Amino acid sequence: MGIWFGSPAVADIAALSAGTLSEHIGIEFTHLGEETITASMPVDPRTVQPAGVLHGGASVVLAETLASVGGHLTVDPERFQVFGQEINANHVRPGLPGQTVHGTAAPLAIGRRSQVWEVKIVNDDGKLVCVSRCTLAVVPLDRSDRP
């Protein structure tokens, strides 16, 4: 399937999130395309700021989650890990309580040592809420401490 290592499925991705921040704030992976990964997140008490709208940090969590999981799915997990190095986000409009936001990540560059992903987050009406770019480091696993 496209850029992915092996044949991952949405159910496999959900298992990666068990017990993590992603699970705690309600991120659900919904689609794995040829070169994209999509997830949704509710705008509810877990993800809003005191003003009652989607917290920008929650949008960044969704964006980095999508980029990191996307990056993870492009490498051999027996040989490499990926880690976020840098992320930026432009918040375009508020996510409103009771809505769900939907993020889609696509790679801009996939290299041997780094990857760059773009994430667009939209509301239920398809209007842009946030756009983010995330750079990931691709790090070889240290095999010296393994049996």
Short description:
GO terms for molecular function: 1,4-dihydroxy-2-naphthoyl-CoA thioesterase activity. By secondary structure, this protein is α+β, with helices and mostly antiparallel strands.
Description:
This protein is of the alpha+beta class and 147 residues long. It has one domain (10-145): Roll (Thiol Ester Dehydrase, Chain A), CATH 3.10.129. It has helices at residues 10-16, 21-24, 56-72, and strands at residues 28-32, 37-42, 80-91, 100-110, 114-122, 128-140. Strand 1 (28-32) and strand 2 (37-42) form a beta hairpin. This is 1,4-dihydroxy-2-naphthoyl-CoA hydrolase. Belongs to the thioesterase PaaI family.
**Strand order, sheet with most strands:** 1-2-4-5-6-3
Helix content: 10-25%
SS field, number of helical segments: 3
Oligomerization category of the chains in this entry:
single chain
- Let me know the largest β-sheet: 6 strands, antiparallel
**Mean pLDDT figure:** 95
CATH architecture: Roll
CATH class: Alpha Beta
Unreliable spans are none
Count of domain modules: 1
Do you know the CATH topology? Thiol Ester Dehydrase, Chain A
Backbone shape: globular
- Percent strand: 35-45%
Number of strands: 6
Q: Note the run of SSEs as H and E.
A: HHEEHEEEE
Q: Kindly report how far apart the N and C termini lie.
A: 32 Å
Rg on CA atoms, Å: 15 Å
Q: Any idea what the CATH superfamily is called?
A: Hotdog Thioesterase
